[in-house]
């Protein structure tokens, strides 16, 4: 996949020497990275990660980070955040935080503050990734210029598009992960009815996410009557991340229920990926990011994902042409926030 991203200030080097504080805020963790601009690239000077719920507000975490950085003030604060950003303000989806760029600029006396969606940041982050930071899931023999898309399941489900203007890709955020889950099979309908005991409206994020993996497993166990072996029950007790327990067991084929859970998860991820590609006509390629795809890459490489991805009433011929890559670098959103802060505004 060849790509160029529109960053209006990337060429010329007039921002060389500026210090960019990039932040990637997720439902589970908040990562900070201090970058220095060197002409059209960035150098990471320092990084630190905090549990997102370790303090009551983002401002408290930012004060703590800046204090540990010996009070060194950045020229730019650029934040990628899981939530819909409107006019440089956001109420986070999976945290009870509200961020306002103007307020942050005043409180911390920073020259420039930008807030963008974390998936938009992930898209910009592709500029700073090396070839080793991504891996092909499927490479089409036809190289087509056009829009691209990013789908990233983790604590939630993020989605973004990249509009191809004929010369550059221009990333933009979406909230597609919150569109409604579309059941196709009988078991999908049963799962939907089970999940509606939790929420009236079920989105794709309910099933294509870390918590979604555990929801699918509990449905198979509690509704479909699948047995849970003692060793697996103990693993759940000893691990704060049940999705990791399930995917680990499935990749090693240690438990039939875990295998089926991940088969359903992979199918749902493929189907929503196809919907995202079709809605954006993303013939330029699909990128799979977030915390989950790199960890379950062996499951994604099996035939199931590809078969479910191209299965469509009328557009199989288009979906067959779409190349798919997995983003391995967990810092893609942080890097993208840095590039946007340095060159995008």
- Which runs of at least 5 residues are low in confidence (pLDDT < 50)? none
User: What overall form do the CA principal axes indicate?
Assistant: globular
Distance between the termini: 26 Å
* Computed Rg: 21 Å
Query: What is the architecture of the largest domain at the second tier of CATH?
Result: 3-Layer(aba) Sandwich
Reconstruct the topology from this structure:
Layout: E1 19-25, E2 29-38, E3 41-51, H1 58-68, E4 76-81, E5 89-91, E6 98-100, H2 101-108, E7 112-117, H3 118-125, E8 134-138, E9 148-153, E10 157-164, E11 169-173, H4 186-195, H5 210-222, H6 230-238, H7 242-251, H8 256-280, E12 285-288, H9 292-295, H10 297-300, H11 303-310, H12 316-319, E13 324-327, H13 332-343
Parallel strand pairs: 1-4, 4-7, 9-12, 12-13
Antiparallel strand pairs: 1-2, 2-3, 5-6, 8-13, 9-10, 10-11
